[in-house]
Design goal:
The protein has nine helices and twelve strands. By secondary structure, the protein is an alpha/beta fold.
């Protein structure tokens, strides 16, 4: 592997852990309602909580979906109030440094989306990372066959928490944008093109999504669906009051439950199907334990274009 800098042993270990399924019947926690803090907390508690994941003085990186400047009620980005509650929870678990990190094609949008109002965490635009501030990584059995620039901050964190958005995504035929696809926001934009990182799409979107998650799969994921987005996503969505937060340790399982909630099947969402095939998690709904709601009673039908 040709790298700009030597890869520390701990980074290689994290890459290996991304390909390990530790639970054969993962839990997906659900919280229902529109009170951001309460619903977020309920979903995380139903998923087993973060106490067993975060150790005293750990450095935590939180990766939201801030694809463009927009208001929380538009259903496009991760609501800052959901992120604030996750920050509160990880602080109570004893976290040392908490960093909210994103690399959107629109650059540093934190203030425009009210993330400057979040307390207890630093904000970091991963677009600012130089080559020297990234590892150049290619996962085992890479699908794109390409090395990827991944910020050292992201790889060196003790714990990564993804906080995605519940919305459709038909502009590049992804079907949905949930926790796995949230990884596209990790590599700095300047290495992949200003037009929504077009190089990653040209290499194959589903393959790029899986490769980035193989490099570092989040340790825990949360999906903000209090206001979701339906229609021709990920930018041109119509907001839908879906009143749900989903959470869990297995991003494939959490995405599987989320996309089924939206009215999709795994067969329609190729990157989730591929992630399961490549060993990143469980996509068989019958093997996933859902806690917090009678799933068949709460499912919706998100509009497709």
């Amino acid at each position: 592997m040709n790298n700009l800098t030597p890869i520390p042993v701990q980074v290689e270990e994290k890459m290996k852990r991304s390909l390990q399924i530790t639970v054969s019947e993962p839990i997906v926690g659900i919280g229902l309602g529109n009170e951001h803090a309460k619903v977020t907390r309920t979903a995380i508690e139903n998923a087993g909580g973060l106490e067993g994941i975060i150790k005293e003085n750990d450095t935590i990186v939180i990766k939201p979906n801030l694809v463009k400047p927009s208001l929380p009620e538009e259903g496009i980005i991760t609501d800052y109030r959901v992120v604030q509650e996750v920050v509160n929870i990880v602080r109570k678990c004893g976290a040392g440094k908490v960093i909210i990190a994103e690399a959107t094609p629109f650059g540093n949008v934190f203030e425009e989306v009210k993330y400057n109002e979040i307390s207890g965490a630093e904000l970091f635009d991963m677009n600012d990372c130089s080559e020297e501030e990234c590892y150049r990584l290619k996962p085992e059995n890479s699908l794109t066959k390409e090395e990827l620039f991944i910020p050292k901050l992201y790889m060196d964190a003790d714990v990564v928490i993804g906080i995605a958005k519940l919305k459709t995504h038909f502009e590049y035929d992804a079907g949905v944008t949930l926790s796995l696809k949230n990884s596209i926001g990790v590599p700095p934009t300047k290495f992949y093109g200003e037009d929504y990182k077009e190089k990653l799409h040209l290499w194959g979107l589903k393959e790029a999504i899986v490769d980035i998650n193989k490099i570092r799969k989040p340790d825990f994921v949360v999906i903000d669906g209090i206001i979701g987005g339906e229609g021709y996503g990920p930018i041109k969505v119509k907001p839908v009051q879906s009143n749900i937060i989903l959470a869990g340790m297995d991003p494939v399982a959490v995405d599987t439950v989320a996309l089924n909630f939206m009215g999709f099947t795994v067969d329609e969402v190729l990157h989730v199907q591929l992630a399961s095939k490549e060993g990143l998690g469980i996509s068989d709904l019958s093997k996933i334990k859902i806690i917090g709601a009678d799933f068949n009673l709460i499912k919706m039908k998100f509009e497709k274009p």
